Amino acid sequence: MKITFLGTGNSTGVPVLACDCRVCKSENPKNKRLRASILITTDNGKNIVIDTSTDFRQQCLQNKITNVDAIFYTHAHADHILGLDEIRAFNFASKKAIPIFGSKETLEGITKTFHYIAEPIQKGGGIPQILLNFVESDFELFGLNFQLIPLKHGLMDVFGLRTGDFAYVTDFNKISENSKAKLKNLKLLVLGILREKAHATHIGLQEGLALVEELKPEKTLVTHTAHAFDYDEFNNSTPKNFEMAFDGLQIEL
Ligand SMILES: [Zn+2]
Ligand SMILES: [Zn+2]
Ligand SMILES: [Zn+2]
Question: Which residues surround ligand 2, an ion (CB under 5 A)?
Protein backbone atom coordinates (compact mmCIF):
# COMPACT_ATOMS: atom_id res chain seq x y z
CA MET A 1 0.00 0.00 0.00
CA LYS A 2 0.98 3.61 -0.40
CA ILE A 3 0.62 6.49 2.06
CA THR A 4 0.31 10.05 0.75
CA PHE A 5 0.49 12.97 3.15
CA LEU A 6 -2.27 15.30 1.97
CA GLY A 7 -1.63 17.78 4.76
CA THR A 8 0.75 17.96 7.72
CA GLY A 9 -0.26 21.20 9.44
CA ASN A 10 -2.17 21.97 12.62
CA SER A 11 -5.68 23.40 12.71
CA THR A 12 -4.65 26.83 11.39
CA GLY A 13 -2.38 25.48 8.67
CA VAL A 14 1.05 27.00 8.03
CA PRO A 15 1.47 29.84 7.17
CA VAL A 16 -1.03 31.12 9.72
CA LEU A 17 -3.27 33.94 8.50
CA ALA A 18 -2.03 37.35 9.66
CA CYS A 19 1.20 35.93 11.16
CA ASP A 20 4.57 37.30 10.12
CA CYS A 21 6.81 34.92 12.08
CA ARG A 22 9.83 33.52 10.26
CA VAL A 23 8.27 30.09 9.62
CA CYS A 24 5.11 31.63 8.18
CA LYS A 25 7.28 33.89 5.98
CA SER A 26 9.66 31.06 5.04
CA GLU A 27 10.04 30.27 1.35
CA ASN A 28 10.79 26.60 2.03
CA PRO A 29 7.86 24.71 0.44
CA LYS A 30 8.09 22.24 3.35
CA ASN A 31 6.98 25.03 5.66
CA LYS A 32 3.69 25.28 3.74
CA ARG A 33 1.46 22.85 5.54
CA LEU A 34 -2.21 22.23 4.78
CA ARG A 35 -4.52 20.77 7.42
CA ALA A 36 -3.68 17.19 8.51
CA SER A 37 -4.91 14.27 6.42
CA ILE A 38 -3.50 11.21 4.69
CA LEU A 39 -4.50 9.00 1.81
CA ILE A 40 -4.00 5.23 1.95
CA THR A 41 -3.95 3.62 -1.49
CA THR A 42 -4.34 -0.15 -1.27
CA ASP A 43 -2.48 -2.56 -3.54
CA ASN A 44 -5.68 -3.01 -5.53
CA GLY A 45 -6.02 0.73 -6.10
CA LYS A 46 -8.68 1.65 -3.51
CA ASN A 47 -8.34 5.12 -1.99
CA ILE A 48 -9.06 5.49 1.72
CA VAL A 49 -8.84 9.06 3.04
CA ILE A 50 -8.25 9.69 6.72
CA ASP A 51 -10.09 12.92 7.60
CA THR A 52 -11.42 15.38 4.99
CA SER A 53 -9.55 18.48 6.06
CA THR A 54 -10.49 22.09 5.51
CA ASP A 55 -8.11 21.99 2.52
CA PHE A 56 -9.48 18.75 1.03
CA ARG A 57 -10.34 20.14 -2.42
CA GLN A 58 -6.90 21.66 -2.88
CA GLN A 59 -5.28 18.45 -1.59
CA CYS A 60 -7.18 16.34 -4.13
CA LEU A 61 -6.14 18.68 -6.96
CA GLN A 62 -2.49 18.76 -5.88
CA ASN A 63 -2.29 14.99 -5.52
CA LYS A 64 -4.44 14.21 -8.59
CA ILE A 65 -6.95 12.19 -6.58
CA THR A 66 -9.76 11.15 -8.91
CA ASN A 67 -11.68 8.74 -6.70
CA VAL A 68 -12.34 8.21 -3.01
CA ASP A 69 -13.59 4.77 -1.98
CA ALA A 70 -13.91 5.30 1.80
CA ILE A 71 -13.22 7.89 4.49
CA PHE A 72 -12.19 7.27 8.08
CA TYR A 73 -12.67 10.09 10.60
CA THR A 74 -10.42 10.35 13.66
CA HIS A 75 -12.69 12.95 15.31
CA ALA A 76 -15.07 15.76 14.43
CA HIS A 77 -12.90 18.86 14.91
CA ALA A 78 -13.24 21.42 12.13
CA ASP A 79 -9.75 20.93 10.67
CA HIS A 80 -10.48 17.20 10.17
CA ILE A 81 -13.99 17.34 8.72
CA LEU A 82 -14.68 20.62 6.91
CA GLY A 83 -13.73 19.26 3.48
CA LEU A 84 -16.59 16.75 3.53
CA ASP A 85 -18.79 18.81 1.20
CA GLU A 86 -16.14 18.46 -1.53
CA ILE A 87 -16.84 14.74 -1.92
CA ARG A 88 -19.90 15.70 -4.00
CA ALA A 89 -17.61 15.88 -7.03
CA PHE A 90 -16.54 12.25 -6.46
CA ASN A 91 -20.20 11.28 -5.95
CA PHE A 92 -21.08 12.87 -9.30
CA ALA A 93 -18.20 11.13 -11.07
CA SER A 94 -18.74 7.66 -9.58
CA LYS A 95 -22.54 7.91 -9.16
CA LYS A 96 -22.00 6.24 -5.78
CA ALA A 97 -22.23 7.19 -2.14
CA ILE A 98 -18.97 7.04 -0.16
CA PRO A 99 -18.85 4.94 3.02
CA ILE A 100 -17.53 6.88 5.99
CA PHE A 101 -16.20 5.28 9.17
CA GLY A 102 -15.74 6.65 12.68
CA SER A 103 -17.02 6.42 16.22
CA LYS A 104 -20.70 7.18 16.85
CA GLU A 105 -19.68 10.39 18.62
CA THR A 106 -17.53 11.48 15.67
CA LEU A 107 -20.08 10.70 12.96
CA GLU A 108 -22.84 12.38 14.98
CA GLY A 109 -20.58 15.42 15.31
CA ILE A 110 -20.19 15.46 11.54
CA THR A 111 -23.92 15.15 10.83
CA LYS A 112 -24.54 17.99 13.28
CA THR A 113 -22.06 20.26 11.49
CA PHE A 114 -23.32 19.19 8.05
CA HIS A 115 -26.98 19.08 9.15
CA TYR A 116 -28.21 19.48 5.56
CA ILE A 117 -26.86 16.02 4.64
CA ALA A 118 -29.80 14.42 6.41
CA GLU A 119 -32.42 16.96 5.31
CA PRO A 120 -34.65 16.81 2.22
CA ILE A 121 -33.38 19.15 -0.46
CA GLN A 122 -34.86 20.93 -3.43
CA LYS A 123 -34.48 19.28 -6.80
CA GLY A 124 -31.04 19.97 -8.21
CA GLY A 125 -29.52 20.78 -4.82
CA GLY A 126 -26.32 18.84 -4.28
CA ILE A 127 -25.40 17.25 -0.98
CA PRO A 128 -22.63 14.81 -0.13
CA GLN A 129 -23.78 11.21 -0.54
CA ILE A 130 -22.39 9.21 2.36
CA LEU A 131 -23.06 5.90 4.08
CA LEU A 132 -22.45 6.02 7.84
CA ASN A 133 -20.51 3.17 9.42
CA PHE A 134 -20.10 3.41 13.18
CA VAL A 135 -17.01 1.53 14.31
CA GLU A 136 -16.20 0.50 17.86
CA SER A 137 -13.75 -2.27 17.20
CA ASP A 138 -11.33 -3.43 14.54
CA PHE A 139 -12.76 -3.57 11.03
CA GLU A 140 -11.84 -4.73 7.57
CA LEU A 141 -11.89 -2.62 4.47
CA PHE A 142 -10.78 -3.57 0.94
CA GLY A 143 -8.76 -6.51 2.28
CA LEU A 144 -6.95 -4.48 4.97
CA ASN A 145 -7.47 -4.98 8.68
CA PHE A 146 -7.78 -1.76 10.65
CA GLN A 147 -7.21 -1.60 14.37
CA LEU A 148 -8.65 1.34 16.32
CA ILE A 149 -6.32 3.13 18.74
CA PRO A 150 -8.37 4.96 21.42
CA LEU A 151 -6.76 8.25 22.50
CA LYS A 152 -7.68 11.24 24.66
CA HIS A 153 -7.68 14.65 22.95
CA GLY A 154 -8.38 16.92 25.92
CA LEU A 155 -11.83 15.76 27.07
CA MET A 156 -12.61 14.22 23.70
CA ASP A 157 -12.27 10.55 22.76
CA VAL A 158 -10.60 10.17 19.39
CA PHE A 159 -9.29 7.28 17.32
CA GLY A 160 -5.91 6.62 15.82
CA LEU A 161 -5.66 3.82 13.28
CA ARG A 162 -3.28 0.95 12.63
CA THR A 163 -3.10 -1.31 9.61
CA GLY A 164 -0.27 -3.85 9.31
CA ASP A 165 2.90 -2.20 10.55
CA PHE A 166 1.71 1.34 9.88
CA ALA A 167 -0.15 3.59 12.35
CA TYR A 168 -1.57 7.13 12.21
CA VAL A 169 -2.16 8.90 15.53
CA THR A 170 -2.55 12.66 15.34
CA ASP A 171 -4.66 14.67 17.76
CA PHE A 172 -4.11 13.50 21.34
CA ASN A 173 -2.46 14.42 24.62
CA LYS A 174 -3.03 11.16 26.51
CA ILE A 175 -2.54 7.56 25.49
CA SER A 176 -3.36 4.53 27.64
CA GLU A 177 -1.08 1.54 28.19
CA ASN A 178 -3.60 -0.54 26.21
CA SER A 179 -3.34 1.76 23.23
CA LYS A 180 0.46 1.87 23.50
CA ALA A 181 0.48 -1.94 23.36
CA LYS A 182 -1.32 -1.70 20.01
CA LEU A 183 1.48 0.47 18.63
CA LYS A 184 4.37 -1.93 19.07
CA ASN A 185 6.44 -3.37 16.19
CA LEU A 186 5.62 -0.64 13.69
CA LYS A 187 7.60 0.09 10.55
CA LEU A 188 6.08 3.54 10.31
CA LEU A 189 4.40 5.63 12.99
CA VAL A 190 2.82 8.91 11.91
CA LEU A 191 2.61 10.99 15.05
CA GLY A 192 0.88 14.31 15.68
CA ILE A 193 3.04 16.80 17.61
CA LEU A 194 1.76 20.34 17.77
CA ARG A 195 4.76 22.29 19.04
CA GLU A 196 7.71 22.18 21.46
CA LYS A 197 5.64 22.55 24.63
CA ALA A 198 2.78 20.24 25.61
CA HIS A 199 -0.71 21.67 25.01
CA ALA A 200 -4.08 21.01 26.71
CA THR A 201 -5.13 18.74 23.82
CA HIS A 202 -1.89 17.79 22.03
CA ILE A 203 1.46 16.29 22.98
CA GLY A 204 4.61 18.39 22.66
CA LEU A 205 7.99 17.41 21.24
CA GLN A 206 9.47 15.94 24.44
CA GLU A 207 6.41 13.75 25.01
CA GLY A 208 6.57 12.62 21.40
CA LEU A 209 10.24 11.67 21.72
CA ALA A 210 9.55 9.81 24.98
CA LEU A 211 6.67 7.89 23.40
CA VAL A 212 8.80 6.84 20.44
CA GLU A 213 11.55 5.76 22.85
CA GLU A 214 8.97 3.42 24.39
CA LEU A 215 7.27 2.18 21.22
CA LYS A 216 10.42 1.91 19.10
CA PRO A 217 8.90 2.12 15.62
CA GLU A 218 11.44 1.77 12.79
CA LYS A 219 10.54 5.25 11.59
CA THR A 220 8.44 8.14 12.90
CA LEU A 221 7.06 10.89 10.70
CA VAL A 222 5.64 13.86 12.56
CA THR A 223 2.49 15.61 11.39
CA HIS A 224 -0.11 18.17 12.60
CA THR A 225 2.70 20.64 13.32
CA ALA A 226 2.17 24.34 14.05
CA HIS A 227 4.23 27.31 12.83
CA ALA A 228 6.50 26.95 15.86
CA PHE A 229 8.49 24.36 13.89
CA ASP A 230 10.74 25.08 10.93
CA TYR A 231 11.10 21.95 8.75
CA ASP A 232 14.91 21.97 8.43
CA GLU A 233 15.59 22.97 12.03
CA PHE A 234 13.27 20.24 13.29
CA ASN A 235 14.89 17.52 11.23
CA ASN A 236 18.42 18.69 12.06
CA SER A 237 17.74 18.60 15.79
CA THR A 238 15.77 15.37 16.19
CA PRO A 239 17.10 11.77 16.18
CA LYS A 240 17.57 9.78 12.98
CA ASN A 241 14.32 8.12 11.86
CA PHE A 242 12.28 10.79 13.65
CA GLU A 243 11.40 13.40 11.05
CA MET A 244 8.78 15.94 10.17
CA ALA A 245 6.63 14.84 7.23
CA PHE A 246 5.72 17.28 4.48
CA ASP A 247 2.73 17.78 2.20
CA GLY A 248 2.85 15.48 -0.82
CA LEU A 249 5.30 13.00 0.76
CA GLN A 250 4.58 9.44 -0.38
CA ILE A 251 5.72 6.27 1.35
CA GLU A 252 5.38 2.74 -0.06
CA LEU A 253 4.80 0.14 2.63
ZN1 LIG B 1 -6.49 18.69 14.39
ZN1 LIG C 1 3.69 32.16 12.13
ZN1 LIG D 1 -8.52 17.89 17.08
Answer: 16, 19, 21, 24, 227
Q: Note the ligand closest to the C-alpha atom of 79.
A: 1
Tell me the CA–centroid distance for residue 74 and ligand 3, in Å.
8
CATH number of 2-119+126-136+145-245: 3.60.15.10
Q: Which ligand is nearest to the CA of 24?
A: 2
* Mean pLDDT confidence for 204-233: 98
Q: What residue segments make up the domains of the chain, in order of their start?
A: 2-119+126-136+145-245
Q: Which of 202, 248, 241 is nearest to 225 (CA)?
A: 202
**Ligand having the closest approach to the CA of 23:** 2
User: Distance between CA atoms of 164 and 110, rounded to whole angstroms?
Assistant: 28
Euclidean distance between CA atoms 39 and 8, whole angstroms: 12
How far is 233 from 226, CA to CA, in rounded Å? 14
Measure the CA angle with vertex 61, ends 72 and 88; round to 5°: 55
Closest of 25, 4, 1, 6 to residue 227, by C-alpha: 25
Q: What is the DSSP pairing of strand 219-223 with strand 242-244?
A: parallel
Q: What is the pTM of this model?
A: 0.97
- In this structure, which ligand is nearest to the CA of 228? 2
pLDDT digits (tens, 9 = 90+) for 46-96: 999 999 999 999 999 999 999 999 999 999 999 999 999 999 999 999 999
How far, in Å, CA of 64 to CA of 53, rounded? 16
